[in-house]
Amino acid sequence: MFEEKTVLTGIKPTGTPHLGNLVGAIKPVIEMSNQAEKSYIFIADLHALNAVRDSKLIEKWSYEVAATFLALGLDTEKAVFFRQSDVPEIYKLTVFLLNVTSKGLMNRSHAYKAISAENEANDKSPDFGINMGLYTYPILMAADILLYNTDLVPVGQDQKQHVEMARDIAGSLNNIYGDEILVVPEPVIQKVASAIPGLDGRKMSKSYGNYVPIFAEQKKLKKSIMKIVTDSKRPEDPKDPDESTIYQLYQHFAPKAEADVMREQFVNGGLGYGDAKKMLFEMIDSTLAKPREKYYELLANPEQIEDVLLSGAKRARIVAKETVDRVSKAMLGRVV
Ligand code: ADP
Ligand code: TRP
Prior knowledge:
mainly alpha
């Protein structure tokens, strides 16, 4: 479905990428970029600013996200891979879009409303802790999308509303200034059958501290996997694979035939959790060993990551400038 289309997606550098991110976001993005006519993939560091208050952390996580994509084989000749803040046209377009976006639209943002509701539930002012970066987050995100004439934005369900807002904002500008100025994008909702569980069985997430970093060192990886919480069934007892974090993770890394074997051994009994964890460790470790080497090599040489990101930004700026010029001409009567 991505052939002949321009697709775009951004990844916020808000932590060390984990196995849930790998299966739910990073792998599908790499696959999508292989299929698309043109793809833009970027590290959304400006979007991290509303929450991360330490520039060193933003830099560290940006490099980690970038190195993860590179180590896992993203084709950066094909995809335009860059860091959001390296394309200064984003600042211009954001200011232009602010003026065609109604406050009412922002009031409806789920992300902002959720925090507001939580504040009220805790007897705090509804605006407590909400900065304008968070409140206007959908406008910056619309600028990301509209800057590159994006047709399709593959995102998880939680981001669908933001893409719809980008459609609204593009429609509003086109309505006032002329139909052909901005391409109106569409969301493509990525279906992950179910969230990857973390070590405690809840959804793997940075916020729960139950995650396994994609490139955890071998020893740490083993230790983490051995810590996965299980029930007290004995090896010979039948177990439900769909309720088991071990099998849920295993099926994403093992070839189908091998995943089917573990599934059967769970259903029929005969496989203990300890042995299943060992199988899981070996499967993840062998799948990720090569990219892991590359990942640490890149992190040790951040200038190599910089080179890739900066040459991506150079390519991104060609289209970005054309868009901003079009908008500026329409709104100010001249190119700024
Ligand atoms: P976290 O919950 O760790 O903060 P993010 O919200 O930053 O993760 O998610 C970044 C991307 O990774 C999103 O596209 C999200 O859908 C995906 N993702 C995060 N956790 C999981 C998970 N446990 N299973 C599948 N996909 C996930
Ligand atoms: N908001 C997205 C997230 O939290 C990240 C993002 C920023 C993005 N700009 C984007 C995603 C543009 C798609 C398109 O995950």
